[in-house]
Amino acid sequence: MLRSVSAGESSEAADFGHLFDRHAQAVYKFCARRTADLVLAEDLTSSTFLEAWRHRHRAPLGNPDSALPWLLGVANNVVRNALRGRHREWAAAERLPTPPVAPAAEDQAVGRSMTEARLQEALDAISTLSEGEQEVVLLVLWSELSYEEAATVLAVPVGTVRSRLSRARSKLQAALGNRPQFILKESS
Amino acid sequence: MIDLSPPPVPDLSDEWVTSHRQALIEALSQQHRRPGRWVAVAGATGIAATVSTILLVGGSQPYAFAGWSAAPTAPATGQLSAADTTCQAHLAQAVPSPPSNKGPGPDVASFVPELSDVRGPYTVTVFGNGGPSGALCISAPTATSLRWIKASDASVGPGAIAVDEVSVLARDAQPYTLVEGRTGVGVTALSLTLGNGSEVTATSGDGIFIAWWPGSQSIASAQLTTPNGQATQPLNLPGPQIPAPPKSAPSQPGTQSSCQSTASVACGGS
Fold first, then answer.
1. Taking Cα atoms as reference points, which of B202, B250, B241 lies closest to residue B218?
2. Nearest Cβ partner of B47 from A111, A157, A185?
């Protein structure tokens, strides 16, 4: 979904608007799966695009498809910093005017709570993995990046991505093999 | 093998996207460009060193090996990922039975992909854990098979290679030859000259190499690339005698003939 450029938007800002339209959902889901907190994930999504804007000279804006791995790399660092208690990005997000969004209805709030519970369960399941292994699970299995894209995001060789994923599978096999709610799945 | 399928995350509402997009655009339009401090994104590197090549084996492609090439090819998007997933599923279900009958089998759970050879739609991956035992997983569009391998204890001299195993396997009742071995210090690339004069470029990396080709041509020699230049290492490895492959048999362990070496160039006898 691309939008036309509104009057007053700079060309670069408009490009970022297109990027937001195209990838906000994927960035949000990545943040949600890393935090198991949907409200926080919304904030981190905004922070990710603000951080990405600061480093837009590195952004592959010419090819919107290739921008997602780069954005997830930004998001990965934003989330990592947030979870480590460094609130620099949060503070940046707070500088944005908060758009008026209607509060969630009660049934939506219940749905959110259930989703967050399932996300937390999944996060707990991979909590025994090293941070590097968790990142590969999140990027390759949960965000459907290719090995090559995940390697670019994490700035490691493709072989490292493969090794980490392999070790993660082995550990998860041992820890979760008898839990039917976890199923085999990977993008191809 | 297990992978986590994450619980679904509901989409952001259209209202959220629209309003936050507008807020973002307005904020960005007012900002001045500032120097970046983002340093996390860097280039990736491949796992396998592959090189130029040469001649195709044979004049026409047997149907069972359509898409095969004498030189390794770049993997299609998702090809390595799909092959790893399938292979690790096979590994998880396999009962280790390494070539050596002495001692316990390898710790399959610790195996990780060490090297992949990609030729068109075919992926051959060496799995191991740094120990002497490992597994070769052969992934084709319609079948995957696994075979155990064991590296020789013999050392590999600098600037040389050691062939650990040559196997003739069958796919759709047509034979193909698979070779796996180790590279000595300084060998950065290699190609194999087969008995009929054709050449096959191997995939090499981390001290091991893999190559395969349709048919059962023997290996005559290896052309090695080292910092000192090109060198030829005679191998004279006859292709194993092939039993008539079973009709329509997928490539499975047990439908092959193989040899294993205990010295650098002794596999198959020379």
1. B241
2. A157
Q: Which has the closest alpha carbon to A33: A153, A148, A151, A135?
A: A135
> Which one of B2, B29, B45 has the shortest CB-CB distance to A157?
B45
Cα distances from B77 to residues A137, B59, B117, B185, in angstroms, run 18, 29, 15, 32
Q: Is B34 a residue whose pLDDT tops 60?
A: no
What does the pLDDT look like over B177-201, one tens digit per residue? 889 888 999 999 999 999 888 999 9
Given this structure, which CATH class describes domain A126-188? mainly alpha
Q: Decide if B46 touches A, using CB distance below 8 A.
A: yes
Q: Assess: ipTM above 0.85.
A: no
The whole-number pLDDT of residue B236 equals: 65
Mean of per-residue pLDDT scores for chain B: 70
Give the nearest chain B residue to A156 (CA atoms): B44
B51 φ, ψ (degrees, to nearest 5): -130, -170
DSSP label of B148: E
Burial A157-185 (b: 16+ CB within 10 A, else e): bbbbbbbbbbbbbbbbeebbeeeeebeee
Query: What CATH fold (topology level) applies to the domain A10-105?
Result: Rna Polymerase Sigma Factor; Chain: A (1.10.1740)
Q: Tokens for A175, please give them.
A: 């820890």
Interface of B with A in 23-42 (CB under 8 A): 23-29, 31, 34, 36-38, 40-42
Domain with CATH 1.10.10.10 in chain A: 126-188
